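Hi all, posting the design record for the shared folder.

TITLE: backbone redesign
STEP: 1 of 1
STRUCTURE INPUT:
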């Protein structure tokens, strides 16, 4: 099962991706983690990424897609993978689609977690408060102002992916406002029809 999870920050993608990964025995792939691993392993694509990062530039879409291409060739991704946080733009989605097509590994589904943005802000504030109460460090992106900035960037850059994938017939939406276990049930209900 090859899938992308879409939704604004705080929509529950991280929580659900862990459950999906465990259930289907597929890796959840983070482009940040993959970039760092490729740089550490000094792969050809990793070295290009390092050059860009050392120069203070953004890593190009071609490099990121190359890193995803290398990563999905690893044995743990043989039965599929979850991409969360990539693609972020329609151009990245198109490049990813071409790469997957060339490998004859097209996406099976794009799951979008639909949420109420006003309630999301409350959810983030609650998460930050509960984390602090447990004595754990609060994520930088759980600061309400940082969150608003991330949400604005999501709406501008990433939200158009919804229409892009809807046009391909791959998009399925899930109500991300329901309790976590109900969201999981809805996700597994949708994925079960594909398996």
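Okay, here is what came back for every position:
SEQUENCE:
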């Amino acid at each position: 099962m090859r899938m992308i999870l879409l939704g604004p920050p705080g929509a529950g993608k991280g929580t659900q991706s862990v459950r999906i990964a465990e259930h289907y025995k597929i890796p959840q792939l983070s482009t940040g983690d993959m970039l760092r691993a490729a740089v550490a392993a000094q792969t050809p694509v990793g070295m290009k990424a390092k050059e860009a990062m050392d120069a203070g530039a953004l890593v190009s879409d071609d490099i990121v897609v190359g890193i995803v291409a290398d990563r999905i060739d690893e044995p743990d991704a043989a039965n599929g993978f979850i991409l969360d946080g990539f693609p972020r733009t329609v151009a990245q989605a198109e490049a990813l689609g071409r790469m997957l097509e060339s490998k004859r590994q097209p996406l099976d589904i794009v799951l979008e977690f639909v949420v109420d943005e006003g309630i999301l802000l409350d959810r983030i504030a609650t998460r930050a408060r509960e984390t602090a109460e447990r004595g754990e460090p609060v994520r930088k992106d759980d600061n309400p102002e940082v969150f608003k900035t991330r949400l604005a960037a999501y709406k501008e850059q990433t939200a158009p992916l919804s229409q892009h994938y809807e046009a391909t017939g791959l998009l399925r939406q899930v109500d991300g406002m329901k309790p976590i276990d109900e969201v999981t049930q809805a996700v597994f209900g949708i994925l079960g029809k594909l398996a």
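COMMENT: The domain at 2-189 is CATH 3.40.50.300 (Rossmann fold).
Let me know if anyone wants the other runs.
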